[in-house]
Design a protein that fits this description.
heterodimer, A: 221 residues, alpha+beta, 4-stranded mixed beta sheet, 4 strands, B: 219 residues, 10 helices, 60% helix
Chain lengths: 221, 219
């Protein structure tokens, strides 16, 4: 059998890169991790992702794939063990809908609450509250977004499990609070999964990074 | 079991057009329901409570939302006719990447062209042309993005062609001058009945844009 060559270009803290790491670990795929310095992008990254010049990029036998959700579906279709998408088209559509909801609605609203000030921040918080309500509703009667096992949507939402507590600590403001008991329970379950437990960026290092970013964005007056 | 397919849509929506093309390519009979977006139907609000947007595809009573997700759903359910997405995983990933690129770039930047002026509009026009040129690069010498037949990326991008005239009039520029290959591609696609019957007339879209500009007080 020909040797499979799998490389993953990412950064140590990239939440989009991390979901690819989890998928690769879930399926037991060996890969080489290449951590990029985004202030000094490698020639390899620019060659493999000329359109966006961003991480993550998966390179399989020399062929690059960019955009994390595209990468996740590629991984699922190439390596069939521990599937992250169901067979049924309607269920597949549901997983894709929620992964997209995280990327286009939930994550940007929480990120806005972290980065913005004044009226913009209030609006971001209001949007986040609304988005979190929808997510909470979706978890009714389920252990994971994928049901009994994690799927594409869980991998997309996975950043919440390790990054929300960092934002809480840095801002002193709890955005995922007791109004969302199902989501809090899901975050616990997800963080206890072997793929998450063994493959999350160190909490202290994240606090330092986001503390520095927060101070830069909100200079003390 | 009834194969009943209903599409909640709005005639100028490029996202709705994607679904129309996909359904037409597959020869699927469906009920088209035009929504008044200032007075959304109970059905729309029930079937898409989160985004409250069109298009909504309802199949056997169950909703599917988000146009590219709908196109993939249609391709998977009616998989035996006119496949839109390649079967090879790498080619599938490539198709998904470029359809996502259309989503990220074309709609938002196109909107900026008709809603802004001056420097902001000039920047939008520049980025729009650059994005179209990248798509031309991806098309290469193929008749369609899907190769010999219409594919996922063709379906994702084609609807915006019906908005090109509006962008050109509002932005005072000619897209064909900069991207002749892409215009040739669009005209080639329009020769297909599935595309021709799914896209509104460009002048009609321009008329709609002028109405919107008036309503929003945009010069």
């Amino acid at each position: 059998m020909a040797a499979e060559e799998v490389k993953l270009l990412k950064t140590w803290s990239s939440r989009f890169g991390l979901r690819v790491v989890w998928a690769l670990k879930l399926k037991g795929i060996q890969y080489d991790a290449i951590d990029e310095d985004l202030s000094n992008k490698s020639a390899l990254l620019l060659q493999y992702n000329p359109v966006y010049k961003k991480v993550p990029v998966l390179v399989h036998n020399g062929k690059p794939i960019s955009e994390s959700l595209v990468i996740l579906e590629y991984i699922d279709e190439t390596w069939k063990q521990n599937p992250i998408l169901p067979e049924d088209p309607l269920e597949k559509a549901r997983e894709r809908f929620w992964a997209k909801f995280n990327d286009e609605k939930l994550l940007p609203s929480i990120w806005g609450a972290f980065t913005k000030e004044g009226k913009e921040r209030e609006e971001a918080i209001a949007a986040a509250v609304e988005n979190l309500k929808f997510v909470e509703e979706e978890l009714k009667g389920k252990k994971f977004f994928g049901g009994e096992k994690i799927g594409l949507a869980d991998l997309a939402f996975g950043w919440l499990a390790y990054l929300i507590c960092v934002f809480d600590e840095v801002t002193g403001f709890k955005i995922v609070d007791e109004r969302y008991p199902l989501l809090l329970a899901w975050m616990q379950e997800f963080s206890q999964l072997p793929i998450a437990k063994d493959n999350c960026p160190p909490h202290d290092k994240l606090v330092i990074k986001y503390q520095a970013l927060y101070e830069k964005l909100h200079p003390a007056k | 079991m009834s194969e009943e397919v209903v599409l909640l849509d709005f005639w100028p929506s490029p996202f709705g057009m994607r679904v129309r093309i996909a359904l037409a390519e597959k020869g699927i009979q469906y009920e088209y329901q035009e929504e008044d977006l200032r007075n959304k139907s109970d059905l729309l609000l029930k079937m898409n409570p989160i985004h409250k947007k069109i298009p909504v595809l309802i199949h056997r009573g169950k909703p599917v939302c988000e146009s590219l997700i709908q196109v993939q759903y249609i391709d998977e359910v009616w998989h035996d006719k006119s496949p839109l997405i390649p079967s090879d995983p790498y080619q599938r990933a490539n198709a998904r990447f470029w359809a996502d690129f259309v989503d990220k770039k074309i709609y938002e930047i196109g909107t900026k062209i008709w809603t802004t002026k001056g420097e902001e509009q000039a920047a939008a026009k520049k980025e729009f042309i650059e994005s179209l040129k990248l798509l031309e690069g991806e098309l290469g010498d193929k008749p369609y993005f899907g190769g010999d037949n219409l594919g996922y990326v063709d379906v994702a991008l084609l609807p915006f062609y019906s908005w090109f005239y509006a962008y050109e009039k509002c932005g005072n520029f000619t897209i064909e001058e900069e991207c002749p290959k892409l215009i040739a591609w669009a005209k080639r696609c329009l020769q297909k009945e599935s595309v021709a019957k799914s896209l509104p007339d460009q002048e009609k879209v321009y008329g709609f844009v002028l109405q919107l500009k008036k309503a929003f007080g945009i010069e």
